[in-house]
Known about the structure:
By secondary structure, the chain is of the alpha/beta class. About 45% of the residues lie in helices and about 15% in strands.
Amino acid sequence: xxxxxxxxxxxxxxxxxxxxxxxxxxxxxxxxxxxxxxxxxxxxxxxxxxxxxxxxxxxxxxxxxxxxxxxxxxxxxxxxxxxxxxxxxxxxxxxxxxxxxxxxxxxxxxxxxxxxxxxxxxxxxxxxxxxxxxxxxxxxxxxxxxxxxxxxxxxxxxxxxxxxxxxxxxxxxxxxxxxxxxxxxxxxxxxxxxxxxxxxxxxxxxxxxxxxxxxxxxxxxxxxxxxxxxxxxx
Length: 234
Ligand SMILES: CC(C)=CCNc1ncnc2c1ncn2[C@@H]1O[C@H](COP(=O)(O)O)[C@@H](O)[C@H]1O
């Protein structure tokens, strides 16, 4: 009879097993262990999201730098997705403000690596493990203009607050002209058709200056989410 020890020690064949789901579970677990280990002493932090495509010198990029700098000056660590564009901008601002600049990178087919302004960087294979870190180690979100990735992060945060999975979590959108039409659609269609409660709009606040965004995310009044039966047990 072949024994487990023997199978373990004798295996010389191709490592198909590392592509199996049980093995993946170990890798997923290791991402949580690494993330929790690296970030647990971070102190006060805010996660900043925004487009991977904004170019240095553009208004949105400058906005990101300003947000990062103001957070750093307030003694707050800046957490981003570690990529280019507005993420890089916020990391850059954090460094310029002598603060802590964190980048939680993600493995993508068009690998880019962490931007050069990240001081504390972790690379993730799995979006869901990485997204846990954005929420777990930040006290609020600032969302700059962005595309699908940014919307994904914004709406996930809103769902977590709405379902009371996280409490006291301010979400501030920066750029009234950019976010205005989305707010109008939420109000005019989602609220009008009863898909979300009007009170859920209170979960987000839209401002136009980096200063207001930082003030609100750090000191702003956080409204309670609605309890319209959306909560599910843990
Ligand atoms: C040039 C390019 C597309 C590079 C992509 N490289 C990336 N590196 C790290 N995080 C990313 C990247 N793309 C999307 N994300 C995630 O999604 C958001 C930006 O996506 P988007 O550009 O809004 O949709 C970021 O906040 C980030 O957390």
